Amino acid sequence: MGERRGRMVRVGEAMRSLIRSSDRAGGLLKARATEVWAEVVGPDIARHTVGMGVRAGELNVHVDSHAWATQLTLMADDLRKRVNEALGENAVRHIRFTVSRVVAEKRDQETSEREAGRRYGGERVEPVSVTVEERREIEEAAAGIENESLREAAIRARIRDRELKKGREKRGASQGPPGDSAGPKKPLLP
């Protein structure tokens, strides 16, 4: 068995040294800086920002509004220190915040999806069929729509909506009165 010579090196230090020597352009470190951005800033800020990349020591972050860009610019020095701390070295010397329509559209889409999930998501509701009378009322209400395919689509949508509302009402009635051990009732959709 061979004899070891030299000083002891921790595995983490050895790995960082190996990565630095094989990644002379710093591409891996730059990519890691954008990865740690969301971790460093937390979910509230991450919802409004996207770390885009590092160039010449500058981390470029796209934000969804001028208000966020202004606020984050005031926090830039602290955020830079936190990013560098997460990286384990001073790779980021400056952070630039750029307003991006794409990030704003992404945020709006995610907000819409969350709202839809809150409003329509939750437990599976078993629809209850509409009565002949309810169907007749729905068809009469849609009679003023001249385009036949549009009228049929409106009727189908309204019938489905009524069936789901009836299903929620039925489920709510089976849960018992509020405060019952079965738990609170969920509000019906408007």
Structure, described:
It is a single chain. The protein is mainly alpha-helical. Among the domains are: 26-105, DnaA, N-terminal domain (GMP Synthetase, Chain A, domain 3), CATH 3.30.300; 123-174. 58% of the residues lie in helices and 10% in strands. It is built from 7 helices and 3 strands; from the N terminus they run H-H-E-E-H-H-E-H-H-H. It has helices spanning 11-22, 27-46, 66-74, 76-87, 101-120, 132-142, 148-174, and strands at residues 49-55, 58-63, 94-99. Strands 1-2-3 form a 3-stranded mixed β-sheet. Helix 2 (27-46) crosses helix 4 (76-87) and helix 6 (132-142) runs antiparallel to helix 7 (148-174). The protein is elongated and about 90 Å long. Residues 178-190 have low confidence and may be disordered.
CATH architecture of one domain: 2-Layer Sandwich
Fraction of residues in helices?
55-70%
CATH 4th-level superfamily of one domain: DnaA, N-terminal domain
Report strand %: 5-15%
Give the SSE string: HHEEHHEHHH
Radius of gyration: 28 Å
| Cα-to-Cα separation, first versus last residue | 78 Å
Q: Are there runs of 5+ residues with pLDDT below 50, and where?
A: 178-190
Describe the biggest sheet?
3 strands, mixed
CATH topology of one domain: GMP Synthetase, Chain A, domain 3
Number of helices: 7
CATH class of one domain: Alpha Beta
Overall pLDDT, averaged?
A: 82
3D shape: elongated
Question: Strand arrangement, largest sheet?
Answer: 1-2-3
Number of strands: 3
Protein structure class: mainly alpha
